[in-house]
Amino acid sequence: MQIVGYMILLVFYLCYFIKMFQQRKQGIQTDHMGKGKQGIQKKIEIMMKGATIATFIIEILSIYLNTTTFPLIIRIMGIFLGIIGDIVFIASVLTMKDSWRVGVSYEEKTDLITDGIYQISRNPAFLGFNLVYLGMCLMFFNTILLIISLLAMIMFHLQIKYVEEPFLKQEFKEQYLQYYQQVNRYIGKRTGFK
């Protein structure tokens, strides 16, 4: 179970950092968390960054200590969620190509990506994070891991709602509004959850 947990995290973060290093080689600044922002947007991005780092540390410790109170079947469900989260995250990063950023950049122009996995989720990278976090909670449950994972997921939601969506509406106008009305925030075609 511990090896599987480490592998799920390794695949996830390898994708994240390999993409970041590839973009850096091309002269693309990937990490824009808290940069060039003020007020609530800056606070959200900084808190989100802190929550993701804290979650990673707690996940590693939870795997190392092999903490859990759940039966094997629940832990196996966690494995599947974690693997699906990896797949969703990798698909989102690959589909974004050179438009992928961590945080919103007001200076760099990117394309609005609406194909591939973005046809069924406006935020598949965050969905991937959430699935990995939920998978880790089921595999290595403890109260601290649950609390910090929920905090990170709440911060992702606030990032989407109060930073990314207003930026995309301003940047891409009608093109984004049409996409916004067709595809849900996390998963599925238009069903009213926006």
Describe this structure in words.
This is Isoprenylcysteine carboxylmethyltransferase family protein. Keywords: Membrane, Transmembrane, Transmembrane helix. InterPro entries: Phopholipid_MeTrfase. Its main location: membrane. Pfam families: PEMT. The model has no long low-confidence stretch (mean pLDDT 91). This protein has helices at 2-25, 39-65, 72-96, 124-139, 143-182. With 194 residues, the protein is mainly alpha-helical. The chain is globular. Helix 1 runs parallel beside helix 3 and helix 2 packs across helix 5. The chain has five helices and no strands.
Quick recap:
The protein is built from five helices and no strands.
Summary tags:
194 residues; single chain; mainly alpha; Isoprenylcysteine carboxylmethyltransferase family protein; transmembrane helix; globular; 68% helix; 0% strand
N/C terminus separation? 36 Å
Spans where pLDDT lies below 50 across 5 or more residues: none
Number of helices, counting only DSSP H or I runs of 4 residues or more: 5
β-sheet strand percentage:
under 5%
